[in-house]
Amino acid sequence: xxxxxxxxxxxxxxxxxxxxxxxxxxxxxxxxxxxxxxxxxxxxxxxxxxxxxxxxxxxxxxxxxxxxxxxxxxxxxxxxxxxxxxxxxxxxxxxxxxxxxxxxxxxxxxxxxxxxxxxxxxxxxxxxxxxxxxxxxxxxxxxxxxxxxxxxxxxxxxxxxxxxxxxxxxxxxxxxxxxxxxxxxxxxxxxxxxxxxxxxxxxxxxxxxxxxxxxxxxxxxxxxxxxxxxxxxxxxxxxxxxxxxxxxxxxxxxxxxxxxxxxxxxxxxxxxxxxxxxxxxxxxxxxxxxxxxxxxxxxxxxxxxxxxxxxxxxxxxxxxxxxxxxxxxxxxxxxxxxxxxxxxxxxxxxxxxxxxxxxxxxxxxxxxxxxxxxxxxxxxxxxxxxxxxxxxxxxxxxxxxxxxxxxxxxxxxxxxxxxxxxxxxxxxxxxxxxxxxxxxxxxxxxxxxxxxxxxxxxxxxxxxxxxxxxxxxxxxxxxxxxxxxxxxxxxxxxxxxxxxxxxxxxxxxxxxxxxxxxxxxxxxxxxxxxxxxxxxxxxxxxxxxxxxxxxxx
Length: 553
Hints:
Elements: H1 2-22, H2 27-47, H3 54-79, H4 84-111, H5 116-139, H6 149-161, H7 165-179, H8 187-207, H9 209-236, H10 241-270, H11 277-303, E1 329-335, H12 357-364, E2 369-377, H13 382-395, E3 410-419, H14 421-424, E4 427-436, E5 442-453, E6 456-465, E7 468-478, E8 484-487, E9 499-504, E10 507-510, E11 513-521, E12 527-535, E13 538-549
Antiparallel strand pairs: 1-3, 2-3, 2-13, 3-4, 4-5, 5-6, 6-7, 7-8, 7-9, 8-11, 9-10, 11-12, 12-13
Helix pairs in contact: 1-2, 1-3, 2-3, 2-6, 2-11, 3-4, 4-5, 5-6, 5-7, 5-8, 7-8, 7-11, 8-9, 9-10, 10-11
């Protein structure tokens, strides 16, 4: 696919030159066609590393296959006079930008909002939808808009350059800084401002007058700051010299084009007009397209910066059943443990020898222990707990006690069964079926497995739901004593797979939830565990477990 994108970029360059030779096309329209035919395939190429997830990769493949036909439709619409036929061709490009937007959203919901440099890239693809929409409005020559036709066209080009190329380059700079261990104060502010900048400027233009000038001043100031740090670190950084040179030249061009934006906005607000729209198209537009975007894309292509981690390669269970069926259990399916050995999770960050022997026995001989749980719902979630209790009771999964003023203990019974690996799709899957001892109702039906990533083994726990599955990917850690922590919380550098995910069919999204399970041995030798769950950073519930050996153990 990478080779195909290179070929498509070269083909796009050839087609763009042919369009310029054959047709009498205006400057602004030619810059839009340049983006369709050349910049978009290059942008897909330099940002596409690490797309291991089946759904996202297939979506990526479709965007590649449709890029040239869609770019041709958009370009044909630009060589025609505005009207119905031109608008119909432009719809082809709009449909493609919707596909790019879905691609960006899919990356975002699978990975979550961090790391921020990847969100910049996601946002760039999502923004193209607005560019496609404004293009259609212009090519249909829609009347009654509060802007003249040329402003509508310039807005379309704005969302194909400032809102597309700028966030991508800023995201790639974030990757470069991470890969070269560069920590820069203010980078987060710059990234958020670059991503929000197009909408801030759009809001300023809507209000007009001094508000427009202030929005431009803010945006230009941020881009000056971005350009200076880019030039500085390209001068002293690592990687291809020619690549760094191109990125540095690109940033110098950005300083020039942003200065023109400031002068144009100043003239509109305070007068006299220092630059006209044709002047801006010639100097600002050409400078952005060739000096900033094209030279920058060549530079980042040569630097070839990879994302900090492979975020899209998490094994997801295929199981959707919440009952034990002879067709999917494995032979004599009864097993006694959740994991074969805690030693399997040894890594640079986890030493199993530091874990108390009683905790090791619990995980390696689980059925010889019984659990008594007390569920505590925290303020803000208590009113919802009764509805939650009813729904989860109906589906037979995650069926926790509702909020009670006088909290009650709930003893759980359970069995562990091996699942056929070919049905689940993960390594050594085994289901821990926990029930309420008094009512026999299912509380949890969790299928345990594990997977390895970056020299680290994660617990991979699937909770089948109706036509979907929730997956908890838990990192294994030591605590300060001799206890054990299982957590889905992200690391400080946002690497790793830990998180809670929901998969509907083949579409996986990261949920705004985190859980941690802390099991320890008290000074009296008693085994206890605390299971905390947060939603959007707010604690919603805590389950405290008392863990007892069976009497015959």
